[in-house]
Design brief:
The complex is a heterodimer of chains A (147) and B (722). With 147 residues, chain A is α+β, with helices and mostly antiparallel strands. Helices cover 21% and strands 18% of the residues of chain A. Chain A contains 4 helices and 6 strands. Chain A is globular. The termini of chain B are far apart. Classes of the chains: A alpha+beta (147), B alpha+beta (722). Chains A and B meet through helix 2 and helix 4 of A and helix 7 of B.
């Protein structure tokens, strides 16, 4: 499956990725609407970390309406038609990478589209193929029903 | 009208009503739905600002509508009695855990007074989104009916339902298929149903459904207490059904979504972090309580005689986990990540009409495990699960069933009952087969099941009149107060909790107060004034959940990590951060600026709580005499009970200046009893004083005026009793 990957040693904290993401999906400059967030740690020289969805799929088993599903590329996607804005996924994401914004009724997350990686001036971000995540309980149940 | 049939269900339409569904604003649809199944009236009643400010919603709305629907002469089985369901302004909020409760209100066949019972499932929230803050069902139908509310089309129908199942296993499934036009619509259907056991007994429960999209069947939660299912069946209402497809974050029309986002996502994160290291509700619901109660001598065993048992581990959480399907959502409303609604799947039944079938079972809850299990001396998890399933299917309250059966078992073992009187059942403690058979008799409406179904108070009267049983003995061991069976905690060592049960408005149910740890274990409320303060604050705070459509569990079954470091123990028991959450939540939904701090929540409850006390008075109850509790809840009734905990009781007698070594056990039982009964009366005095009531337990005119519930008929009622 595909996922966004980050190299801390290459990041200069410019936040172009945040701006690109917010612009791509919400057409705004508000970085709180970015699915990727860059954090600066104290120290000299400054160190940066990135927070974004790694497509682990744990949220699939949290969502009460089954609005979160994995697509054929392994990307976990939110079906806004099914989402009731309960925010369970926001609270239970193991990486705190499912986001909600005060102006939005439904959460949002990184779908590894790669737009931020294209714009990253240092090459700290890239979309890579990684080993498939284990099937969630929901996916196992759905397979059993289908069979 | 009589020839019209709905195209989808094929059911005959007896009456229908079209309306324009209003947009829910700040938690209210601003109207309630009135249905009379006798004359087929269907109408809308407006909800005004005074009704919202005084009664808030949920239990408050139910009480107010019922107050106006009945008179002091109305009996539970009169057509005037009503079954009312209402969620409350916060009910239907998706972003804060535990925000999907409904509260059922009716005149109870067990207490003959006003009853409230809270329940999960989707009915109340979907009803509100369909445009109704409450549904009020009056009358008695001339044939079996289903009341259907379609919130997407703006349609209410009374439908003849002669052929649909009357039990709560088949019927909710049939309803989903009948009323969902496509598979995707199944999640938009919720039903309220009971069953044949409710029709044959006085302890009928309501089953409220929610469709589980992963398990692909309707799940059930129960409004168990007080026989409201019996009232529904007596009205020949097979089910109340609501359909509303399209729940969204904004469906409840909150005033301040950003504030909801902040408090909701914070709480989800707290549950994520804290639940695994606290109660692990997500990993097995309330099953974890059995071991805790057993360890603290609080688990009812053999009709509340004892508080622990060597075999109790067989009913502990690990015994039930293999039956439960885990790893997927178990909230009974969207966004409840505390998710205590466990589900056993593929359970093979060994008895009854569905013997041999594999069925799902919602639960078991602690109360069911303790009531049907340990309190009846039964320690076989599979038998508890089987009884859980059939109680729900027949529409019988597991708590009343367990407590009533435990009473009958003690009567059997003490010679009040025998095989001739039970129709051949050997009702010894621990006899699972007899337990299941009497349950099936309740479902079929025959045999000793019909006797048990009258509840503890009914059985006491019957056994005295018919068999000449000792009145005092039955009064001492019959665990009921106000006619309602006790829920499943041993209160002998906690005088505060004796009051928590005895002073509860509807009867001995722990949803008003659970003070045992605070009182008896942690010794945080040593004086009568302390206990009275706790018996004011906690019943009021817990009442507030029932006004708003909230579940109590996310309040104190999970706590912030720093709760006990940040606050002294007595304050920590209130979970101040969560109380703050509720102030924020209420304001975020309703936009009410007058609600600023925790005392404002208490004030809301005081209005409704006192009103309910006066409603009891109006129905001929609600006085000190009705707050008397059986001695089994206070101390050891029998020599055997005393001797089982002799060291503890002897020490207490010594502290009173007595010399236990010089006394027979019977003398010690009597001395302890005199002391404990005296202390209970002292507690009652202190609580009445704190609540602003007379010595007879009646709210004073001054109290009522201060609370703004001085309606003319309320004032007249108080004048009549002063």
């Amino acid at each position: 499956m595909k996922t966004l990957t980050f190299r801390a040693d290459l990041c200069n904290g410019c936040r172009v990725c945040e701006e690109t993401c917010a612009q791509t999906y919400f057409k705004v400059t508000d970085n709180l609407k970015s699915s990727i967030r860059i954090y600066e740690a104290e120290g000299t020289p400054p160190q940066f970390s990135a927070n974004f969805c790694n497509q682990c799929g744990e949220c699939i088993d949290i969502c009460p309406t089954m609005a979160l599903r994995r697509d054929k590329n392994g990307i976990v996607r939110l079906d806004k038609r099914l989402c009731v804005g309960c925010l369970s996924c926001v609270g239970f994401c193991p990486n705190a990478a499912m986001r909600i914004h005060a102006e939005l009724a439904v959460p949002f997350k990184c779908v590894a589209c790669g737009q931020c990686a294209k714009k990253c001036p240092t090459g700290a971000l890239s979309v890579e193929e990684v080993a498939d995540a284990e099937l969630t309980v929901t996916e196992i149940r759905l397979k059993a029903v289908a069979a | 009208m009589t020839s019209v049939r709905t195209s989808k269900t094929g059911l005959q339409v007896l009456a229908e009503f079209h309306y324009v569904p209003p947009k829910v604003e700040r938690g209210y649809a601003n109207q309630t739905l009135y249905i009379n199944v006798s004359d087929h009236t269907i109408s809308a009643k407006p909800v005004d600002e005074r009704m919202k400010n005084t009664f808030v919603g949920g239990r408050g709305f139910g009480l107010w509508l019922l107050w106006n629907g009945v008179t002091e002469k109305t009996r539970w089985n009169d057509p005037e009695n009503e079954v009312i369901l209402s969620s409350g302004p916060i009910g239907g909020t998706t972003s804060y855990p535990g925000s999907g409760k409904s509260i059922a209100v009716s005149l109870s066949p067990l207490t003959h007074s006003v009853m409230d019972s809270n329940v999960g499932g989707h009915y109340g929230p979907l009803l509100k989104f369909a445009g109704w803050d409450a549904i009020e069902v009056q009358g008695i139908a001339s044939e079996e009916v289903i009341v259907f509310v379609d919130g997407n089309r703006g349609l209410v129908q009374i439908l003849a339902a002669p052929e649909q199942a009357d039990d709560s296993y088949e019927l909710p499934r049939q309803i989903v298929e009948m009323f969902a036009d496509t598979p995707d619509e199944r999640v938009g259907i919720s039903s309220v149903s009971s069953g044949p056991g409710a029709a044959h007994t006085l302890m009928g429960c309501l089953n409220v459904s929610f469709y589980d999209p992963r398990r692909q069947f309707p799940r059930l939660k129960q409004a168990g207490r007080g026989g409201i299912g019996t009232v529904l069946r007596q009205k020949r209402v097979k089910a109340l059904v609501v359909k509303y497809v399209g729940v969204k974050a904004e469906s409840n029309g909150p005033a301040d979504w950003p504030s909801l986002v902040a408090v909701g996502s914070k709480m989800h994160r707290e549950i994520h972090d804290q639940d695994p290291v606290m109660n692990d509700m997500r990993g097995g619901g309330t099953t974890m309580l059995t071991a805790i109660m057993n360890n603290f001598d609080l688990l009812p065993v053999n009709n509340f005689r004892f508080g622990s048992h060597p075999e109790a581990a067989r009913l502990a959480k690990p015994a039930f986990l293999p039956y439960l399907s885990q790893g997927i959502p178990n909230g009974c409303w969207y966004g409840c990540t505390l998710a205590c609604a466990s589900c056993a799947e593929g359970f093979e039944l060994r008895t009854g009409p569905l013997r041999g079938q594999k069925v799902p079972i919602d639960g078991p809850e602690y109360e069911t495990i303790a009531g049907i299990g340990s309190n009846c001396g039964i320690f076989e998890p599979a038998d508890v699960l089987e009884a859980n399933f059939y109680c729900d299917t027949y529409g019988i309250d597991t708590i009343s069933f367990g407590t009533a059966l435990a009473f009958a078992m003690e009567c059997y073992e003490s010679g009040v009952l025998n095989r001739a009187r039970t129709g051949g059942l050997e009702l010894n403690f621990g006899n699972s087969s007899a337990m299941l058979e009497v349950l099936h008799q309740m479902g079929r409406g025959e045999g000793f099941g019909m006797v048990l179904g009258q509840g503890v108070r009914g059985m006491k009267d019957l056994f005295v009149k018919k068999y000449g049983a000792d009145v005092q003995f039955l009064q001492d061991i019959g665990m009921e107060c106000k006619g309602l069976e006790y829920s499943e905690y041993v209160t002998k060592e906690s005088i505060a909790q004796q009051g928590g049960y005895g002073l509860a408005n509807k009867g001995p149910q722990h949803d008003e107060a659970w003070l045992i740890f605070m009182d008896a274990i942690n010794k945080q409320i040593p004086t009568f004034e302390d206990k009275a303060e706790a018996l004011h604050y906690f019943p009021m705070f817990r009442t507030w959940f029932g006004l708003n459509g909230l579940c109590k569990l996310p309040w104190n079954d999970v706590e912030p990590a720093d709760n006990r470091k940040k606050h002294e123990p007595r304050e920590a028991a209130r979970v101040p951060e969560h109380v703050g959450n509720y102030v924020q939540l209420f304001r975020a939904v309703t936009g009410r600026e007058d609600v600023q701090e925790p005392k404002d929540l208490i004030r809301m409850s005081e209005k409704v709580y006192n009103f309910q006390r006066l409603f009891n008075l109006r129905m001929g109850f609600g006085r000190r005499a009705q707050d008397a509790v059986p001695y089994r809840s206070m101390g050891p009734v029998t020599v055997e009970e005393y001797e089982s905990r002799a060291e503890r009781y002897d020490q207490q007698l010594a502290e009173l200046g007595l010399v236990p070594a010089d006394m027979s056990t019977a003398e010690k039982v009597a001395a302890l009893r005199a002391h404990r009964e005296g202390r209970y009366e002292e507690l009652v005095d202190a609580v009445y004083k704190r609540r602003g009531w007379t010595k007879d337990g009646i709210p004073t005119l001054e109290t009522v005026r201060q609370l703004g519930i001085d309606y003319p008929d309320v004032v007249a009622l108080i004048a009549k009793h002063s």
